[in-house]
Structures are given as C-alpha cells and as structure tokens.
Design goal:
Elements: E1 3-5, E2 12-14, E3 16-19, H1 30-42, E4 47-49, H2 63-71, E5 81-86, H3 101-115, E6 120-125, H4 134-146, E7 150-156, H5 160-172, E8 178-182, H6 196-203, E9 206-209, H7 241-244, H8 249-264, H9 269-278, E10 285-288, H10 293-300, H11 309-320
Parallel strand pairs: 3-4, 3-10, 4-5, 5-6, 6-7, 7-8, 8-9, 9-10
Antiparallel strand pairs: 1-2
Helix pairs in contact: 1-2, 1-10, 3-4, 4-5, 5-6, 8-11
Length: 321
C-alpha cells in the first residue's frame, strides 16, 4: 500500500480507502463487513469511511456505523483513520437534517456512540446547507475539534464557491479550516476538474473521492442490451437508481473501448479506473465499496499500476469523444 498526505496536512491515508455506502448495514451483513474490513486492514488500508445516514434506506440511520464499529474492534484505534458525516435526514423532525449547530453536535455525539470511539479523525459535512449560515457551521466544527471529538473537518460535494466560503469564514474568525473534500469522481464523472480540484489544491485541501467505479459500470459488468446481472447494485430496487444515470449508450461505448486498453495493460477494468484516478496527484485517497474480500484485493492492486503517457493519452481520447 502507498500513503498520501491529506492536502498540506500531516496525516497520511492509504491511496485506497474502504467505504460503507450502499454496503454494510444495508445490503450486506456483519459477516461480510468483517471479512472485507479485515482484508482491507491486512492489505494496508488505513482509511475507513462511513456516515450517519448510510443504511437508513435499507435498515435504519446509523446502521453502517454500527456494523463498521464491530468490524474494527480488533484493531488499534491509532492505526486507522475513521471518517463519518452528517447532513441528510435521520428522522422526521424539523431539526433532523442539515448543518445547524444543533444537528451537527447531536449527530456527531450519536455517531461517536455508534462507532464506539471517543473521536473521529474526519467529520464531513455531507452536503452544503443553504439554510444555515456558514459561520454557524464552521463554529460548530471548530468546537468539536477543540472538544477532541473531531480531528479534521471535511466537506462532501461542496462547490468551489462553497469551499471558499467556508475557508474565508474560518480565516475571518480564526476557526479550524476545512481540511478535506469528498466529491464523486471517476472516468465518467469528471466535474471536479473544472474548478473544485484546483481550488482544493490552492487551499491545501486533500481530496478523497467516492464512486470511483461509477457504481460498478466501470468494472464492465453491465452490457448494452443485456439484462442487469442478478445480485448487482443496478438490479437492487432499493439502490438501483444510483446506477441508472450511468447506464447510457455513450458510457457503454466508452467502457467497451476502455476495456480494450485494460486488456492491453494486462489489468482489470476496475484497476484501470482506479489507477487513472491515482495518476492525479491532487487525489489523497480513492474510496471503494466491497461486498467480498476478493474485491478489496483486486482493487488494492491498482496502487502498483503505472499508466504511461501513451496509455493516459489513449484513455483521454476515449473519455473526451
């Protein structure tokens, strides 16, 4: 495993991280989570990512945190980086979502209890909240950091303008800054390249990306004109809508051409997709999901894949057409 700093900050995370969105606490149980987490840890993965809302649509809010906590029980707390998030609805009350001070404080405490830990390394604002003043958000995060419950503040899917708003506010009031951003990023979704990536680099933020395989589309398992594979994420009525947006004729054509490049490099499509992301030095870590230890092992091999200039040019030609 290779490790990278989170932006300009001292903490280092594994180039591949293990997430729990749409997996643990929902579609997959404790036994599968235990096997995947152990394999990840044994392979050198030290960054584990979850959120208060993961599992909510399939079981209950906090389900993924509870499962992940049990999977991590046997490992030294100081040996891994643990991240969780808040923003999305965890109940029916008017204050059960968003980034108000009330919601941030209550959900951080609830997450710590579910995760069975005194602190999380990274606490993300899962989205931007236009209903809450940014100084209220940044002050709440700063207080959690001073209380020792959070080590680093992060955001997920914030625009470049929103990130700058947060950073300028922390500067103005001498508050702890945003340290890391977690956006979606893959070969088929490159929106962060326009503004977000450069802003994060300029401001010293790390970037940990999710959906690196475009919900499985970049593994090549979905084929144009063929039925959805049984047991796949796309075939699951509870989460299939996350995959639908990627199942276009244009994307099928790109994946087919990318598959040829992967074969020429003697690697899998998943390894090609992950190695392509890691080629961008602005990226701190790539968050994968896995239901089987074998998937973790295959994905981790991407850290040793070096894509030469000709291969990168060939990939770029496919993606820009």
């Amino acid at each position: 495993m290779n490790y990278r700093k989170i932006g300009r900050y001292g903490v280092k995370v594994s180039e591949i991280a293990l997430g729990s969105w749409l997996t643990y606490g929902g579609s997959y149980g404790q036994e599968q989570a235990d096997a995947c987490v152990k394999k990840a840890y044994d392979l050198g993965i030290n960054y584990f990512d979850t959120a208060d809302v993961y599992g909510a649509g399939q079981t209950h809010p906090g389900a993924a945190e509870e499962v992940l906590a049990k999977s991590l029980e046997g490992f030294s707390r100081s040996s891994y980086v643990l991240a969780t998030k808040t923003f999305w609805s965890v109940g029916d009350g008017p204050n059960d979502r968003g980034l108000s001070r009330k919601h941030i404080m209550e959900q951080c405490n609830a997450s710590l209890k579910r995760l069975n830990t005194d602190y999380v390394d990274i606490f993300y604002c899962h989205r931007y909240d236009p209903e809450t003043p940014i100084d209220e958000v940044m002050r709440a995060l700063d207080d959690l950091i001073h209380q020792g419950k959070v080590l680093y503040a992060g955001v997920s899917e914030w625009s470049a303008t929103q990130i700058l708003d947060g950073q300028n506010t922390s500067d103005r009031f001498n508050l702890s800054p945003i340290v890391i951003n977690q956006p979606a990023y893959n070969m088929l979704n490159r929106y962060i390249e326009k503004e977000v990536m450069s802003i994060c680099t300029r401001e010293g933020l790390g970037i940990a990306v999710f959906s690196p395989l475009a919900e499985g589309v970049l593994t090549g398992k979905y084929k144009k004109g063929q039925e959805l594979p049984k047991g796949s994420r796309a075939a699951d009525p509870k989460v299939g809508h996350f995959v639908e947006r990627y199942l276009t004729e244009e994307n099928f054509a790109k994946v087919e051409r990318l598959s040829t490049i992967a074969v020429e490099n003697k690697i899998t499509m998943a390894q090609l997709a992950l190695a392509w992301i890691l080629h961008h030095k602005e990226i701190s870590s790539v968050i994968i999901g896995a239901s089987r230890p074998e998937q973790v092992e295959e994905n981790v091999r991407a850290v040793d894949v070096v894509l030469d200039e000709n291969t990168m040019e060939a990939i770029d030609e496919v993606l820009t057409k």
